[in-house]
Design a protein that fits this description.
- The chain has 211 residues and is α+β, with helices and mostly antiparallel strands.
- It has one domain (3-197).
- It is 27% helix and 29% strand.
- The chain has helices spanning 3-10, 64-72, 104-113, 115-120, 153-161, 184-197, and strands at 14-15, 18-19, 24-26, 37-45, 50-58, 78-85, 95-103, 124-130, 136-139, 144-148, 178-180.
- The strands form three sheets. It has a seven-stranded antiparallel sheet with strand order 4-5-10-9-8-6-7. The protein has a two-stranded antiparallel ribbon with strand order 1-2. A two-stranded antiparallel ribbon has the order 3-11.
Length: 211
């Protein structure tokens, strides 16, 4: 693989009718071709014997942020939010910063101000949890959605309205070799977002929602 071939590969963001953001690219060998859709699964925790329905989704870039905001609506008016950062980390791990109890419109306003960061930074992810029950929407560094809820139909309705189909077989970009993109400006923007949301002290805590 030459540097020119890698550079050319990194410039490719459209695969058929699916468009990637700038955050992640598949490996140059392309073992998984990005595709839009969602899978219906069950999350199982063997230690607690917990079983929770979940949705795992990949959405094309042109409607990705609107879909994210729509998925937050079923969570209610008061939310908990966890910002996830892998900036400066070479081992693939991330640090979580949590803010409990933030009004949904306030959070949505902050997120809209940082739409570019949230969509295009491969080192920024977040999870939003309902304050009224066990519901969680994760929007991770791969720009994929993982949704956990005893009642997933309200979230499936969002996908249907956005034209995102259920697929029984849907390999995800994160399930094969892939490349993340970030830069120092995005790292600075992440800190600004954290201050806006209320974790400016950068006291890292583990997410206590479903992981």
């Amino acid at each position: 693989m030459t540097s020119d071939s890698l550079e050319a590969h990194l410039q490719i963001k459209r695969y058929g009718d699916f468009t990637l953001t700038d955050a992640v690219r598949p490996a140059i060998e392309l073992p998984i071709r990005p595709r839009e859709g969602y899978r219906l699964e069950v999350f199982r925790d063997s230690a607690s014997r917990l079983r929770v329905p979940m949705l795992f989704a990949s959405v094309s870039a042109e409607k990705l942020f609107d879909t994210f905001l729509a998925l937050l609506e079923p969570l209610g008016d008061t939310l908990h939010v966890v910002l996830e950062s892998s900036h400066g980390r070479k081992d693939g791990s991330h640090v979580d910063y949590r803010r409990n109890r933030i009004d949904a419109p306030v959070l949505a306003s902050h997120l809209c101000d940082f739409e570019d960061l949230i969509l295009n930074d491969g080192c920024t992810g977040l999870a939003v949890l309902s304050a009224r029950g066990p519901m969680e929407v994760q929007f991770d560094e791969h720009k994929l959605f993982a949704i956990y809820s005893p009642k997933v139909n309200r979230f499936r309705r969002v996908f249907r309205e956005m034209g995102v189909r259920r697929r029984r077989v849907l390999p995800m970009l994160c399930e094969a070799e892939h490349l993340h993109y970030s830069n120092e400006d995005y790292a600075d923007q992440f800190e600004q977002l954290a201050m806006r949301i209320g974790v400016a002290d950068f006291e890292s805590v583990p997410a206590d929602g479903i992981d």
